[in-house]
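Translate sequence into structure tokens.
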Amino acid sequence: MTRMSTEPDDNPPRAYPRPADPAPNSRPDGEQAEYNVFAIISVSCGILGLVMLQIVLAPLAIIFGALGVHAARDTGPDTRRLAVAGYSLGILDGIIWLVLASVFHLTFFPL
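Result follows.
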């Protein structure tokens, strides 16, 4: 026969489950990861500009890339690389647009 103990239990049942591991965007030291929104927007506009609306998205990628490089002083070198990538994609989008516009013009309106 088992004996019932009147001593308090060391591990009482919990009302709530234990917290899970830290969120994936948090750092090991407990600080929240910093994001450079301008850099993310710049890369997004640059990638989308490769396939559509170069005339609109190329200037946006260049502008947000420049703002992202400026804002990278607060967020660190990783976000600076992302901003430079968006800036470069914006320039590439502009070059693609110029080539396509030149080909269109020379095809339909020859000299």
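Note: DSSP finds three helices and no strands in the chain.
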